[in-house]
Amino acid sequence: MSKVICPDNVLEEIEVGQLLTKVMELKKAGLRLSQACAAVSKGNLELSYSFVNDETYEFITLRLVTDDKTEVPSITEVVPAAVFYENEMKELFGANIKMIETDYQNKLYRIEQETPLGLKDKEAK
Question: pTM for this structure?
């Protein structure tokens, strides 16, 4: 039976320009993408990419705090498994993710409202 190790989880807030370098470092260290998600908080988009070490159960989450205008590079060239996460972030939250390896062009989901979970234009209301 394997020994369960429960280290502290790490949350590292990074700038958009650091994303690809940090992802490559984590991949080279043997961590794999566990999940990626988006959320709206305090008028910003939070994009979180969580990586796990399967031997130590260490979780490291990279978090970008951005808006829906700032271009975010896709990590799919480095981590192909991110394709559905990034398409979801783009389609549901309006994240401006560029160069997704397989970009579904906002057709991943059958939804009527554009970016239903994203930032709302307060002046349009």
Answer: 0.88
Measured CA to CA in angstroms, residue 35 lies from 12, 63, 71, 81, 125 at distances of 15, 12, 21, 9, 33
| Sign of the CA dihedral running 97, 100, 103, 109 | negative
DSSP reduced 3-state for 102: coil
Structure token pair of residue 46: 């939070």
Alpha-carbon distance 84 to 7, whole Å?
Answer: 28
Rg of the chain in Å (alpha carbons): 16
1, HSE (Cβ side, Cα atoms, 13 Å): 3
pLDDT one-digit tens code per residue, 32-42 = 999 999 999 99
* pLDDT for residue 10 is more than 50: yes
Distance CA 116, CA 123 (A): 17
Specify which residues 48 forms β-bridges with: 37, 63
* DSSP-assigned letters across all residues of 45-83: EEEEEEEE-TTT--EEEEEEEE-SSS-EE--TTT-GGGH
